[in-house]
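Homework help board

Subject: predicted structure for assignment chain

Our instructor gave us this sequence and asked us to write out the predicted structure in token form, then describe one feature. I got the tokens but I'm not sure how to describe them. Can anyone check?
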Amino acid sequence: MKAVSTSALHIRFMKKHELAHGIEWAAYEGWNPGLNDSETFFDTDPQGFLLAEIDQEPVGMISCVRYGLDFGFIGFFIVTPAFRGRGHGLALWQAAVAHLGGRLIGLDGVVAQQANYRKSGFVWAHNNLRMQGMTTTKGPVHKGVVALETVHAEQVVQYDAAMFPGERGTFVRRWIQQQGSVALGFWHHHHLLGYGVIRPCRVGFKVGPLFADDSTVANELFNALMSRVPAGEQVQLDISEDSEPARELARFWGMQAVFQTARMYTGLMPVFDQHRQFGVTTFELG
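My token output:
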């Protein structure tokens, strides 16, 4: 993508250190980003974050991360309050879509923007819910739960690939090693049956992803993740509203819905395994 300038607005690729500004904006919007998300996100696609400036002042951003040759994901769509209503968001949006070229594009759209996304050709697939509760445990950690670092990274990448519509091995390798996070797997007879990550956020913790072959494994992983953080802290889990097993897990752990998005795509919903998705990885990058 070439830098885009329209009148006083200038859009260019973000530099690595500048993504911290975007994380701060996301926190201001109440999205509760992870404390150490910035480096992991940027390393996934160093040309996946666009910054809008006016007279060298940052006024907005959007992410347009590429996963392989066929899929991309849009997130972090933010214009600072003082510069809204002037067309800057539309300019950012158009630059992000153009950067992703002919890829199938996904996003998690906030309620206020969903009508605009439909006008741009996005089709609703399902709603996602942010579930929130308090960290607690429900018994001892199952003996099948292992530190994910004891599992070969390629096995984790392969397991994850079935649950995501694009190639994201680079992201997964960094995500499961992110500073401050805890990544656990469920190992049985030399096979990985699920994995989950919990990371510290501005407020409390988030679990994501939480992928498992069945509800039993998912609950054992969630319990083990809860055992690795202080009790009584806020914890969030993003789930598909269509997934009854994920909703049942959230109910079992006393979680309530506090936020909703719509997962949308520029075409038909891609084929991937949703039945093993008990928790979305991240609304920002998919």
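Reply (TA_rk): Your tokens look well-formed. For the description, you could write something like this. The mean pLDDT is 95. That's the kind of observation they're looking for.
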